[in-house]
Amino acid sequence: MLHPRAAVFLSVESAGSQHSSGPGCLRDSAGRFQAEHRPLPFCIPLRIMVSSEKKKGEGTRIRLRRDGPPHGRRPLQTHDHDPGALCRMGSINGEEECAMLSIAVVDDEPAFSDALCRMIRQFAAKENLEVEITCFQDGIDIADEFRSRWDIIFLDIQMEHLDGLAAARRIRACDSEVILIFVTTMAQYAINGYEVDAFDYILKPLSYPQFEIRMTKAVREVEKKRAHSYVYLKKYSDVVKVSTDDILYIEVAGHTLRYVTTGETYERRATIGDAEKELAGLPFARCSLSFLVNLKRIDRVSGDTVVVGPHPLPISRNRKKEFLQAFSDFLEAGF
């Protein structure tokens, strides 16, 4: 019998067929691989990965993917989510690099969570998407020690320990990009969703047509967000996902880099050369030895000064020609 905290990997050839275990992508805490046979309600070659390994801030994970890169796309490439790691994502439905869609379901009703997970898997099969689903039983489970790793979060509004709106506020403090979709029995409960920039809401009981409309919109929004790059930066004990578009400039302060953004300032122990390498190909240029500027955020260049937002920064004599050329190329490219 499968231990309730064991990791599960299933290779499913078709609904109702004999299932054979594949290589262990997830293992239990002792490193042991365990498998369980379970049919799926559709007949396509799929792999499903389920993890009930429960750690603080984590929930049950379900991963669904096809047995190879679909339609000739390149295999999934993973990214290190350490602070400062740069992530560039291609279109979900395009021909570029295809990244897995990471989804969290937060609801204290197991029957509803199961139904929603089935609909997500059905949608993923239809749209040829790779998805990973993580299930939580209460808002506090996802909000406590939250990590920016999900593209879409479905949040029940009414939960026992921490309701969906309160959980969303804590999530937004760490991640301004994740798509939040509230699920509720009554539409008026979702009215305050604007406070946390909720993307949409779904009414219980669920119907697939209703879900499909919301999910299609959400996936399109993820595609738009993934057209941009972002970095993971540390703020006190939190690691926060920050769009590179929101960075105004990066400043050297001793052995530390200061990332000054439109909202917050983050610090990271690294060199400015490290930042230049990570942001290569994006519109950033050095105006001096100590400053790396986001060319998208320049408001004015006047003599030996470049104004980025409310910040006047010096342009050094040695860097001036190269910096102005980079800015001119940026403008000519029509960004």
Report what the structure shows.
- With 335 residues, the chain is α+β, with helices and mostly antiparallel strands.
- Among the domains are: 136 residues, Response regulator (Rossmann fold, 3-Layer(aba) Sandwich); 89 residues, LytTr DNA-binding domain (OB fold (Dihydrolipoamide Acetyltransferase, E2P)).
- It is built from six helices and 19 strands.
- The strands form four sheets. It has an eight-stranded mixed beta sheet with strand order 1-2-3-6-5-7-8-9, with helices on both faces.
- The protein is elongated and about 65 Å long.
- The N terminus is likely disordered.
What is this entry, summarized?
The chain has 335 residues and is an alpha+beta fold. Helices cover 22% and strands 30% of the residues.
SSE topology sketch:
Elements: E1 7-12, E2 46-51, E3 60-65, E4 86-88, E5 101-106, H1 110-127, E6 131-136, H2 139-143, E7 152-156, H3 164-172, E8 179-184, E9 200-203, H4 208-226, E10 229-235, E11 238-243, E12 247-253, E13 256-261, E14 265-269, H5 272-278, E15 284-286, E16 291-294, E17 298-302, E18 305-308, E19 311-314, H6 317-332
Parallel strand pairs: 5-6, 5-7, 7-8, 8-9
Antiparallel strand pairs: 1-2, 2-3, 3-6, 4-10, 10-11, 12-13, 12-16, 13-14, 15-16, 17-18, 18-19
